[in-house]
Amino acid sequence: MKIRSAVVVQNPKKQRAVRLKSEVESFLEQRGVKVKQGGDILITIGGDGTMLYNKKKYSQPIFGIGSDRSVICQSNFKNWRNVLSKILRACRIERRSMLQCRISGKTHEDALNEICILSRDHRVIEISLSFPGRRKIFRADGVLFSTPTGSTAYAYSAGAPKLNPLAKKYEIVPVASYMREFKPVVVPDSTECEVKVLVGNADLMIDGQFIHHVKLNSKIKVFKSGRKLGLLKPA
Questions:
Q1: Catalytic positions, please?
Q2: pLDDT tens sequence across 96-108
Q3: Domains in the chain, please, with CATH?
Q4: What is the pTM of this model?
Q5: How far lies 94's CA from each of 19, 74, 113, 117, 170, in Å?
Q6: For the segment 40-68, what is each residue's pLDDT rounded down to a tens digit?
Q7: Which of 113, 123, 184, 120 has its CA nearest to residue 154?
């Protein structure tokens, strides 16, 4: 892939990212890459959250600049010049699978990390979960559906295994399941799940960025998105 143009987006709440934006744009222009809306690639500055937030607005392959704690971003505030130079010379696109959910017929944002259904009142909620070959009602603080990319994040902290980022699977992970009534499950990415909150108030959170209220007994469908997110890697 030959990169001729790029759009650069920073997290406006992080001063370091705001200051770095003009530096990144100058770096690109000095190497013959035009900075414009609708560019060949998207460069995000700020961290994993900045990438997760902007993936909804842009369809281009992404190069992320974050902190030392960033996991998805391909570079950090110290080494971005070196990594971006390699990508501008020769790159490949690593396509990561995402999840989607539908509530009462309305489809919400794609999830690169996870879709979470969490108690809003900090009390245990009762959840009905069904997918091919299994139906379970259990109590927990919530349940999350994690992509392979997100398996090293919230899912891993909640006791699920790490997956290869390109695996054709996803994880169903309870959050503090009462008496461990339900344990993490790894399913093929062709699996479609149906979830209902039977007791309690809950919110649905996508990648920690987008929040939607969940009504009691409303059907939540979780399934593999038809879209994949492209991450730029050195060739």
A1: 48
A2: 999 999 998 899 9
A3: 5-89 (3.40.50.10330), 98-226 (2.60.200.30)
A4: 0.91
A5: 29, 11, 15, 28, 17
A6: 999 999 999 999 999 989 999 999 999 99
A7: 113
